[in-house]
Q: What sequence folds into this?
């Protein structure tokens, strides 16, 4: 409990420090930034580029569309979009996490598969996500199973899982191979089979590696979901809000920053959700000697 309180306190202090640095930059740097020759080495700090923090927070309570019959505040729009994207990101995290763990188990079981597949697993993360998103949407649009047709949100979830599976697969594989040789030899001496060794030794030993990997996967799933929403034009999520607010950024840049703030909070919430898994597996901490 004390450790969690410290973690929350550190997050709050980091946010306050970021706000202070933001306002100091606006106070000390010129509006046009700092130029060295024709190269801008420090960003512009005028209201069109860096609005005040209180201006951004104030915009959250203003109507999204002035004069609308059913007015909705910008904050409500950001919260609604963030919840939509969060659902898709968590779905992608579960899907990618399950695939990553299965792949790690297979690679640990068969050394030849690890040597053959691991380089391609690593290389898969070098493919630009913005190039994959239209392909997934195009291929998925041709799928129809028992009357159910592929939906745009399904493409977003698949792309999120694509980014989530890599850290889980690599972290899980490292954890499965973490037990000391003496422990593995002891199980062999006791005539324990692969399954018994896996359940009693390797899986508990993988927990300290799996939790950090799952946190990285959660953040990656959020990034994948937002980029996929932008690339495929999926409505309802925070990615779509970023596009819409960016179109009016010239006249009202603070509204764009509210969507960016929502995306940042969304990543923290997704990573925090992994903490529930950490609590459930707490007794396996320190399994590796």
A:
């Amino acid at each position: 409990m004390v450790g969690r309180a410290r973690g929350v306190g550190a997050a709050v202090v980091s946010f306050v420090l970021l706000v202070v640095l933001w306002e100091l930059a606006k106070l000390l740097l010129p509006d046009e930034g700092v130029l060295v020759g024709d190269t801008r080495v420090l960003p512009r700090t005028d209201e069109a580029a860096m609005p005040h923090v209180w201006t951004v927070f104030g915009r959250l309570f203003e109507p999204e569309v002035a004069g609308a019959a059913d007015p909705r505040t910008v904050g409500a729009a950001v919260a609604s979009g963030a919840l939509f994207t969060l659902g898709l990101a968590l779905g992608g995290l579960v899907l990618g996490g399950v695939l990553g763990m299965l792949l790690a188990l297979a690679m640990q079981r068969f050394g030849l598969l690890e040597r053959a597949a691991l380089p391609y697993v690593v290389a898969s993360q070098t493919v630009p996500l913005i190039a994959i998103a239209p392909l997934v949407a195009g291929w998925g649009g041709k799928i129809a199973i028992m009357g159910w047709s592929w939906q745009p949100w399904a493409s977003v979830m698949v792309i999120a899982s694509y980014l989530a599976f890599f850290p889980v697969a690599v972290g899980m594989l490292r954890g499965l191979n973490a037990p000391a040789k003496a422990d593995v030899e002891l199980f062999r001496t006791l005539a324990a089979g692969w399954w018994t060794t896996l359940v009693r030794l390797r899986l508990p030993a993988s927990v300290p590696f799996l939790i950090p990997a799952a946190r990285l996967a959660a953040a990656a799933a959020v990034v994948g979901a937002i980029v996929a929403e932008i690339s495929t034009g999926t409505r309802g999520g925070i990615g779509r809000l970023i596009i819409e607010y960016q179109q009016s950024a010239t006249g009202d840049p603070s509204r764009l920053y509210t969507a960016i703030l929502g995306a940042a909070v969304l990543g923290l919430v997704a990573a925090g959700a992994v903490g529930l898994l950490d609590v459930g597996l707490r007794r396996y901490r320190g399994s590796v000697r």
Notes: Residues 1-50 form one domain. Strands lie at 34-36, 39-42, 144-145, 148-149.
